[in-house]
Amino acid sequence: MQKSKEKDLTKGQIPDVLKQLTIPMIIGIFALVIFNLVDTYFVGKLGTIQIAALTFTFPVVLVINSIYLGLGIGAAAVISKAVGENNREKVIRLSTDSISLGIVVAVIVAIIGELTIEPLFTALGANEQVMVYIVQYMRVWYASVPLVVIPMIGNNAIRALGDTKTPSVVMLIAAIANIIMDPLLIFGLGPFPELGVQGAAIATAIARFITFSVALYVLIIREKVIVVKIIKLKKMLSSWKDILFIGLPNAIARAIIPLGAGVITRIIADFGNEYVAAFGIGTRIEFFSLAIVIALVTTIPVFVGQNFGGKRIDRIKEAILVSKKFVIYYSIAAYILLFLIARPLASLFSKEIVVIENVVLYLRIVPLAYGFQGILLIINGALNAIRKPIKAALLNVIQMLVIYVPLAYFLSKPFGMVGIFVSLVISYIILGTISIGVYNREINKL
User: Fold this and answer.
1) Of 17, 126, 368, 433, which alpha carbon lies 20 to 30 A from 214's?
2) Among 418, 426, 429, which Cα is nearest to 363's?
3) Of 206, 194, 184, whose CA–CA distance to 136 is shortest?
4) Quick check: is 3 in a domain?
5) Which residues of 355-372 are buried (b: 16+ CB within 10 A; e: fewer)?
6) 43 touches 50 (CB < 8 A)
7) 0.70 exceeded by the pTM?
8) What is the pLDDT, as a whole number, of residue 1?
9) Mind listing the pLDDT tens digit for each residue in 308-335?
10) Are 87 and 261 in contact (CB under 8 A)?
């Protein structure tokens, strides 16, 4: 039987520890990015209407994923703190109860989602032509929601134990499965039926099943932190309360981000399907560009959580300082590279001039804010881990709803897509700066 890979992050040289945690996550994040880009690439081969349909689904899929990501962040924060406290019984209880909470929420989301597809996407600005493909995609996606929730929460629980390698390997395998299944099911190659957009959703569900299975195996068999037994309702509700204290503000805040993106998509929809498609492609490329930063950001709550449990505030301060410096240097290099290769990169996803020009526009404006965006994400993770979830959530809400969406609405009138992209840059610069002050105040209190 494979040995547990739980790690103590309260010891060791901080840059080395962060590197050991982040490098495996880079592989995982790149796998996740490839997962998403492959869908965009193959669906893009079907036509502009189909890629526009997929873009319309992004905000809704992200809202639902944000709910589970919020729960996962809550689980990671409380589990990593329990690891830092060397409380094995608490680790087991919190891990088990986080999964049961996720399953309950998954059933509720799947039912509500199936019943609201057409009215919801009509409100987002989808016309009848696009709606056909949206329905095909989302019906399958909602049915597979339970396959999404277990890996999302489960992988966070695994990371909370200090193991970032296993989740990364799982994500890589899922990406490979998606790469193989996408063309087979979308275009009907060999014995497979030609399912178009619906095929992309089925390929995603198959890949998710792999992550679902492995996450359960690791948590139940290898780490033995999930125990299937009858426990008192009072104890389970106590665990849910601890997880939701951090998870709920994060779920709401992270759900607001794609809701805001949905409003932005609605604004862009008035320009035409080509512009919606360009926005979708630009955001997918951005995810790829920030993969290394996202990998680092993913490890921060785990590192901070364990050191918070072990009362090593000095290590938390040093880790955040090192992370901020890295993000600034990385963002400068990323901007220069994206500016230079924007056009050939955009041409990989579409042959339509309008789409290409707007993707290029996105890649030459939005990356200006990558450094501030990275700092905001790092500080969010740290605030959650030191049990300041409401302040972390408010930073996200202000960035999206108070600054980005209103500014994009007003600047889109005279400046079109340029106004929308510049609004995003401004919002990240302001909130990235504010987040530094909030973090400094909270960490000094400790």
Assistant:
1) 17
2) 418
3) 194
4) no
5) bbbbbbbbbbbbbbbbbb
6) yes
7) yes
8) 37
9) 888 889 999 999 999 999 999 999 999 9
10) no
Q: Answer yes or no: are the C-beta atoms of 95 and 226 closer than 8 Å.
A: yes
Evaluate if residue 3 carries a pLDDT over 70.
no
Alpha-carbon distances, residue 132 vs 43, 54, 186 (angstroms): 14, 11, 15
In whole angstroms, how far apart are CA 170 and each of 24, 210, 256, 347? Answer: 11, 8, 28, 31
C-alpha 342/C-alpha 282 separation (Å) is 10
Instruction: Give the distance from CA 187 to its chain's centroid.
Output: 28
C-alpha span between 28 and 165 (Å, rounded): 8
Q: Which two tokens stand for residue 407?
A: 């500014």
CB-side neighbour CA atoms (13 Å) of 361: 19
In a domain, 2, yes or no: no
CA separation for the pair 161, 173 (Å, rounded): 21
Task: Yes or no: say if 279 and 55 are a contact pair by the CB < 8 Å rule.
Answer: yes
- Determine the structural domain holding residue 148 and report its residue range: 14-445
Query: Are 153 and 211 a contacting pair, CB within 8 Å?
Result: no
5 lies in some domain: no
The encoded tokens of residue 178 equal: 């998606």
For 385-423, the pLDDT digits (tens) are: 888 888 988 998 899 999 999 999 999 999 999 999 999
Instruction: Count CB atoms within 10 A of the CB of residue 229.
Output: 5
Q: How many domains does the chain have?
A: 1
pLDDT digits (tens, 9 = 90+) for 77-107: 888 888 888 888 888 888 888 888 888 888 8
Determine the residue type at 316. Answer: I
Half-sphere exposure of 393 (CA within 13 A, CB side): 22
**CA pair distance 129, 221, nearest whole angstrom:** 48
In a domain, 384, yes or no: yes
